[in-house]
Amino acid sequence: MAAQDPFSLAINAVENDMANEVLDRWRDTAEQHATIEVLPPGMDMKTWPTVVALFQEILGDDGVLVGHQHRIRYCDPYAESPDEQEKRGSSAALLPATVEQIQAVLKLCNRHGIPIWTVSRGKNLGYGGPAARVKGSVILDLSRMRRVIDINDRYSYYTVEPGVTFFDIYRAIQNQQKNIWCSVPALGWGSVVGNALDRDHANQVCGMEVVLADGTLVRTGMGALDGSACWPLFRGGYGPSYEGMFSQSNFGVVTKLSLWASPSPEGFMFCRVDVQNEDDLAPLIDCFQPLLLHHTIQNHPLIGNLPREMVKRGQRAKFYAGSDAIPDARLKEIQEELGIGFWSARFALYGPKDIIEANYKRCEKAFETLPGARLTGKATYPPAGKKYLSPEDLPPEERTVETGTPSLLALKAVEYRGKDGGHISFSPVLPPDGSLAIAFYRAAKKICASHGFDYFGGLHLYPRHLTMINMIYFDRQSGVQRQNANKLFVALVHLAREHGYSEYRAHIDYMDLVAEQYDFNGGSLRRLNQRVKDALDPNGILSPGKQGIWSRKDRQGGELHKLQSIGLSDSPP
């Protein structure tokens, strides 16, 4: 978002141009607001320049950003509020390149009580981006820590630092001709580590290196055995396992992480199934669930509704001119115009040809029970002389995320309601049960419509759960849409709780609200998190308020109360 070199990480020039167009728009929007100097909490104007100079001694002049260029790079590009800087603007950004620099920064921040908000690359779009929760925080940006430490295709894992993007790891795998495929998200410019820590790939994590708030360096699992070759191979280690504790938390700064990957397959088939009717969602989910549980399908299917398909074909105004939710009758017309199902699912099959063909037949048999379902599949196998398939063996247009190929094509979706678009992601977790999913979908769609929004759904299916991600798109130039998006999100959180569900991650504005929903035994899990926080970070400097976890000083009258006073927290002290 800023005065940086043009973005060039994507695999092709078209996506790089798209990214730079979006970055320029974010910068232009940010430039509309004057830069105000923000100081860390409790810091005065006399002391702050001295502290900045000490940061520069640690990181070099180019490793410390303050003022205008810092502001336009480290704000939420999809912020609902035009006065975000006044509410939670950060004071500086620090860009370390080594563990030792992080340790020195933490020592200085502990001495002065300066809150730090850690980001790997700051691309957590729809959840706050690189912005901090507490006004005056310094942003600890780990994007310069960009080493791909190891790629091992004998055991199918890789070890990286937080600044490594999905484009970086993809290129490294191809350049080293390693026979592994990685899982990738919709947008490949984000951090592999940051993405895993937010739970998208948490099941593949095996081994972390973490700097605690006091500067102590810890390796989890077998990494605690100095020089162990089993660190990225065996999760258990000896004693308690801590990987989960450093996911979605503010207990430490993760500086290295290993992820398990998939061996390169001997074949790949991209599959799609369309169903015609809105109510077909329930039987569609029920068809998928046993196929996933029995590993017939080895990746996770993604089910999208009609509006989710529409965004690939242009802005909303192309299909409907009204400001209200698109009526069902018009949706039916659009469906007929596009010639697609109301729900469309995509998934993949992997393995030798006989395995793929056998599994495809199982899928055909399963979907035959759903009237009107249309299943298609296209298989690709290695060229002559090769045992394993590489994504590079496919035509560029067929290198989808299912092949481990990162992309930025989904970036344009944010323009659904306007060129200067924003979105919030609402992501509750449900059982993979069709009747429960359709009931919640109906209720959520009704609430979306009452606030003037289409239900924009993407359901990610797993053997034992699903995440029903609802993208709330709004035009950032519309104050009404921004306000209604906020009201809608809060209403959806409460609706989910009424149904017995809640989110697995949350935008920074709503972290306390979502934490409150986890209310078993009076919120005993949250209190446990607070006790751990107080033990590991007694000064409360690391990402205060992340996931609703606050230190004792903030709970007893500090930053939490300030957030409540400006409406950025519904949490009790």
UniProtKB/TrEMBL annotation:
<dbReference type="InterPro" id="IPR016164">
    <property type="entry name" value="FAD-linked_Oxase-like_C"/>
</dbReference>
<dbReference type="GO" id="GO:0071949">
    <property type="term" value="F:FAD binding"/>
</dbReference>
<dbReference type="InterPro" id="IPR016166">
    <property type="entry name" value="FAD-bd_PCMH"/>
</dbReference>
<dbReference type="Pfam" id="PF02913">
    <property type="entry name" value="FAD-oxidase_C"/>
</dbReference>
<keyword id="KW-0285">Flavoprotein</keyword>
<dbReference type="InterPro" id="IPR006094">
    <property type="entry name" value="Oxid_FAD_bind_N"/>
</dbReference>
<protein>
    <recommendedName>
        <fullName>FAD-binding PCMH-type domain-containing protein</fullName>
    </recommendedName>
</protein>
<dbReference type="InterPro" id="IPR036318">
    <property type="entry name" value="FAD-bd_PCMH-like_sf"/>
</dbReference>
<feature type="domain" description="FAD-binding PCMH-type">
    <location>
        <begin position="86"/>
        <end position="264"/>
    </location>
</feature>
<dbReference type="GO" id="GO:0008720">
    <property type="term" value="F:D-lactate dehydrogenase (NAD+) activity"/>
</dbReference>
<dbReference type="InterPro" id="IPR004113">
    <property type="entry name" value="FAD-bd_oxidored_4_C"/>
</dbReference>
<dbReference type="Pfam" id="PF01565">
    <property type="entry name" value="FAD_binding_4"/>
</dbReference>
<dbReference type="InterPro" id="IPR016169">
    <property type="entry name" value="FAD-bd_PCMH_sub2"/>
</dbReference>
<dbReference type="GO" id="GO:0005739">
    <property type="term" value="C:mitochondrion"/>
</dbReference>
<dbReference type="InterPro" id="IPR016171">
    <property type="entry name" value="Vanillyl_alc_oxidase_C-sub2"/>
</dbReference>
<dbReference type="InterPro" id="IPR016170">
    <property type="entry name" value="Cytok_DH_C_sf"/>
</dbReference>
<dbReference type="InterPro" id="IPR016167">
    <property type="entry name" value="FAD-bd_PCMH_sub1"/>
</dbReference>
<keyword id="KW-0560">Oxidoreductase</keyword>
<dbReference type="GO" id="GO:0004458">
    <property type="term" value="F:D-lactate dehydrogenase (cytochrome) activity"/>
</dbReference>
<keyword id="KW-0274">FAD</keyword>
<dbReference type="GO" id="GO:1903457">
    <property type="term" value="P:lactate catabolic process"/>
</dbReference>
